[in-house]
Each structure stands twice: as C-alpha cells, then as structure tokens.
Automatic annotation (TrEMBL):
It comes from the Bacteria. This is Cryptochrome/photolyase family protein. Keywords: Lyase. Transmembrane segments: none annotated. Residues 171-200 are annotated as: Disordered. The lineage of its organism: Bacteria, Pseudomonadati, Pseudomonadota, Betaproteobacteria, Burkholderiales. It comes from Malikia spinosa. The keyword Repeat does not apply. PANTHER family: SLR1343 PROTEIN (PTHR38657). SUPFAM superfamilies: Cryptochrome/photolyase FAD-binding domain.
Length: 509
C-alpha cells in the first residue's frame, strides 16, 4: 500500500523535499483536529488562519499533482484526534508506512512516538527542513553551563553561516551587536508603513468553526483578515517589510506607541512559524538589502539577531528543558489573571492598548508582550501557568516551542534565570521613556504612592523587596538594591502597603 505523509498545521512548507515530485505511492494527509483547537483556548484568527492556510496548501499540492487527503473539521470521517485519524486512514488506504515531519511541540512529538511504537507498519519521522539548528544543538553548545547566553549562541551561528561577516570573517561594522543604537522612542515620524497585507474573506470557514462548537477568544474579523494564506503572500509581505519598515526597524525596535500597533515590526512570525517562509531566506534577503544600501547595518543586524539568534535559541531551550518546562514557577507566583486580560478593560493605558491589540489582531509586538503585559504579570506575581496558556492561545504566532521559553523564561523568570540574566521588569519611568501612553493615562507616572500613582511603581519596588533573598546576589541588580537600601524603613513600608492595596483591587485597576 501507499505511504501516508502527515503534514501538521504548522508545516506548510511547499519547498520541503517531500514535494519535489508527485509520487502516486505517497498520500499527503492534512487533518483539522479538535485535539489541536482545544488544547488551549486559541484566538479566533489563529484557528481561521491555520485552517485556511492548510486548505490552501492542500489545494496547491493537488494542483501540482500530489495525492492529498484533507480532513476538514466537520468531515464525517474526522475522529478529531491525530492518532485515531491515522489509524482510520491506514486501514482505509491499506497503507504500508507512515511518515511525518518532526513536530516542534513536545506534546505532538510524544503522541506520535508513543503511537508509532505500537504500529505493525513502518513509521518514520523526517526533518522538517526548516531551522538552522537541530533540536539538541543549543543543549550541546551550552553543555552544563548554568546560564545560556544568547550572544554566544548567536555569534556561533553567524560564523557558521557566514551571516553579516566581512572578507576576513569578522562581523560587519566591527561589532556583533548594535543593540545600543536600537533604543529610540518613536516621535510619529517616519510614518508607520502602510498595511499592504491582503484581505481574505473567511466568513464561511468561520461559520464552520463556530458550528463545530470550537471555543475561541478575540475577534474573528472574518471579513477583514490580514494574515498570509500561503508562501506567495508571505514573500510579498517580506518584500514589503524590507522596503518599508526594515530601514527603521532598529531605531524603533523597543518603542511603544498609542498611535501605531505595529510600528516597524515585520508581522512575519506567523508565516515563519507555519513554515511558509524559511528563516534562512528571510535572513539572506535582509542581509542582501543591507549590501545594496537599502537598510542601515544596525537595523539589519538587530533584525537578523531575532531570527538567527533568538528564534533558534529559544527552540534549543525548549527541547533541552521539556518535559516539565511548562510547569516551571521558580518564584512561586500564584495570583490568578485579572478578568481584563480577556477584554482589555483596565485604566492602565499601556496595558489596555497592548491587550486590546492582542484581542483585535491576535498580535502585539515584542515590547508590548515583554515590557507591558509580561512586566505587569511578573511584578504582580501572576501565576505563570495560566499566563503561559493565555500567551499560547492569543497570538497568531503562538506555538509552544517558541511561546513557552519566551513567556516562562524570558518574561516571567519562572525558570530561575536560564534565559534572562535578570528579570525584565520596569517602573513607569521606562514605559514613559519608550512610549506615549502615560500622557493619556488615568494614572500618574511620577508618584510611587497615593490613589493616582502608576501601579507599576510600587509594584516594581515591592517585587524586588519580596524577592530580595533570591535576587540580591545578582550583580546586574546591584543598583536596584542599592537604591532600595537607601530608602528609609518608612518609605519601604509605604511602598509595600501601596503594592498590597494595588493588588487587592487588581480587578478594577
Ligand atoms: P519582529 O519584531 O519583526 O521580529 C522578526 C522575527 O524575529 C519574528 O517574526 C520572530 O520570528 C523572531 N523573533 C523576534 N523575537 C523573538 C523571540 N524573543 N523569540 C523567538 N523569535 C523571535 N514569538 C513567536 O513567534 N511566538 C510566540 O508565541 C511568542 N510568544 C512570546 C511571548 C512573550 C511573553 C514574549 C516576550 C515574546 C514572545 N514571542 C513569540 C517573541 C516575539 O515577541 C514575537 O516573535 C514577535 O513579536 C512577532 O512579531 P513580528 O513578526 O512582527 O516580529
């Protein structure tokens, strides 16, 4: 019988060697599954985008002459579990073998391996042909180092792949890292790039998703949908980014603004994570733009570091630490998430904007995820597990291998500091320096105490006070503790009181 070739919803790469030429002995299987829509509550746009892209992928494979079996969410034959469907399809086709591309999530990897161990026919996982690095590579590179420094990993990969190197193999511009140049707030100029992403009408698909009873969060915006459906659209988006936004990406990489939800970010994470785009081609095109004088070096390096560095690195952390990583809670935080995480209804202007953007677009940029929402969550001591599920559900690009290390490691310090050398937290002063939200906010950025004091202020000091035993020894926090030590006992008590009062009314902040 034929070989069944399973394509997961985040494996929509038409350049994979599986598709080099049609082979009647190979049936490509795409499955829309309740198992996948239900392991966490996802944003409506995420479910739509993935199903729509899977359907488009199936159509294109068929048009290219491949055998395809696409099982829709409401297909009568759909058993809604990955392995139950495989069992049914094996007997239906009389298949003699099953292949799949290595999943990126531990959950699916374990499910497929357990299932395969019980099969009488040949089962085999092949490379997904997407990443620069193998799953276990970061773990090898860092061996038993306590801290995994991104910079070390990133430079190794720059050298290995000859990215942004001069003729002598040295980093272009004489330095590996231009972070110090990439920290401007955005004054409203240059104007934000035009959103040229295509619109698709997914209302029929959305009705199917609703009829199936799938629970989602956020706005489906079925008639005004801007996520790419396929590789051609993703490539167009990459070109638009390089032309319009890359030149300013570096300058405003860390900025926050009430006037622009995307600033100069690429919005490419969905296309990358479902593998419509390959990270190598993205990096090469961006480097090429710099070589042709179309972007400054600091912006180019800053962008490439996100993809060649961070993206590969967090994946390495994930595979080194799973299973168990998603349960980490090194700081012992237990507070439930306030209800306004699901409607953006808070008077803190920066948080309201970040959460509303997330609900409306299934997207928030990195600084909103890290320095607004994540910052508040860490300072307030929110339970990292429901927070992890919130992040895993809400973002269009959220898949556990990349979401969990970012949320639990980088943002919440829940892994005890493997990823981050210190907690990413700030008081209102930083938020005010990087953005314009404080001006229109119900709270006052300056005072630490009092009715109108910005909650970030007292929570910031109280966090370090609470965590002193664990964090005081960290030399990157020496200044914080020096400042705390300079305060009078009365001032410190007032801060703790303010923090306690703030947390007591967290639902109405
Ligand atoms: P840009 O700013 O244009 O960056 C370009 C690309 O670099 C991104 O598309 C992405 O592929 C990559 N990248 C940038 N930062 C990171 C990072 N820290 N880790 C991995 N890749 C990175 N990214 C996800 O793809 N999925 C997630 O579920 C996710 N969850 C996050 C949760 C938290 C708490 C934080 C702080 C960050 C998270 N990130 C996640 C990383 C980052 O915020 C997003 O990749 C980025 O905002 C996507 O938007 P963009 O494509 O416009 O990115």
């Amino acid at each position: 019988g034929p070989t069944l070739c399973l394509i997961l919803g985040d494996q929509l790469n038409p350049l994979h060697s599986w598709f080099a030429r049609p082979d009647p002995q190979r049936v490509h299987v795409l499955l829309e599954l309740r198992q996948e829509t239900d392991y966490v509550v996802h944003h409506a746009q995420k479910v739509i985008a993935i199903f729509a892209a899977m359907r488009d992928f199936a159509r294109q494979l068929k048009a290219a002459g491949h055998r395809v079996r696409h099982v829709a969410i409401d297909d009568a034959s759909n058993r809604q579990s990955l392995t139950a469907n495989l069992d049914a399809l094996i007997s239906h086709y009389g298949a003699s073998a099953v292949e799949w591309q290595q999943p990126d999530e531990w959950r699916l990897d374990a499910q497929l391996n357990d299932w395969a161990a019980r099969q009488p026919i040949a089962c085999q996982a092949v490379d997904s042909e997407h990443f620069y690095t193998a799953r276990g590579e970061a773990a090898e590179l860092f061996a038993d180092r306590k801290q995994w420094l991104l910079e070390h990993f990133y430079r190794t990969l720059r050298r290995r792949h000859g990215v942004l190197l001069d003729a002598d193999g040295q980093p272009e511009g004489g330095q590996w890292n231009f972070d110090a140049d990439n920290r401007k707030s955005w004054p409203g100029n240059p104007p934000e790039p035009a959103d040229r992403r295509p619109r698709h009408d997914h209302s029929a698909l959305w009705r199917q998703i609703e009829a199936a009873g799938i629970v989602t969060l956020g706005q489906p915006q079925a008639a005004d949908f801007r996520w790419p459906l396929n590789r051609a659209e993703a490539l167009q988006q990459l070109d638009d980014f390089i032309e319009q936004a890359l030149p300013h990406f570096g300058d405003y990489q860390d900025a926050l603004s009430s006037k622009s939800w995307r600033l100069f970010h690429s919005l490419l994470s969905f296309a990358l994570n479902v593998k419509m785009l390959n990270p190598q081609e993205v990096v090469q095109r961006v480097e090429q733009a710099w070589r042709e004088g179309r972007a400054p070096l600091a912006a180019t390096e800053g962008f490439i570091r996100q993809i060649l560095g961070w993206r590969e690195y967090v994946r390495g952390v994930y595979w080194a630490r799973m299973p168990g990583y998603t349960e980490s809670n090194a700081l012992g935080h237990q507070r439930p998430l306030p209800h306004w995480f699901w409607n953006g209804d808070t008077g803190m202007a920066c948080l309201a904007a970040a959460i509303r953007a997330s609900l409306q677009q299934a997207y928030a940029h990195h600084i909103q995820r890290l320095m607004v929402i994540g910052n508040f969550a860490l300072l307030a001591g929110l339970d990292p597990q429901p927070l992890h599920r919130w992040y895993l559900g809400i973002y269009i690009d959220a898949f556990e291998w990349v979401e969990a290390p970012n949320t639990l490691g980088m943002s919440q310090f829940a892994d005890g500091g493997q990823l981050a050398t210190k907690p990413y937290v700030s008081s209102a002063a930083y938020l005010d320096r990087m953005g314009d939200h404080c001006k229109g906010c119900r709270y006052d950025k300056k005072p630490k105490t009092g009715e109108r004091a910005c909650p970030f202020n007292a929570l910031y000091w109280d966090f370090f006070e609470r965590q002193a035993e664990r964090l005081r020894g960290n030399h990157r926090l020496a200044m914080v503790y020096k400042n705390l030590d300079k305060m009078t006992p009365e001032a410190r008590a007032a801060l703790s009181e303010q923090a306690a009062a703030t947390l007591a009314r967290i639902e109405t902040l």
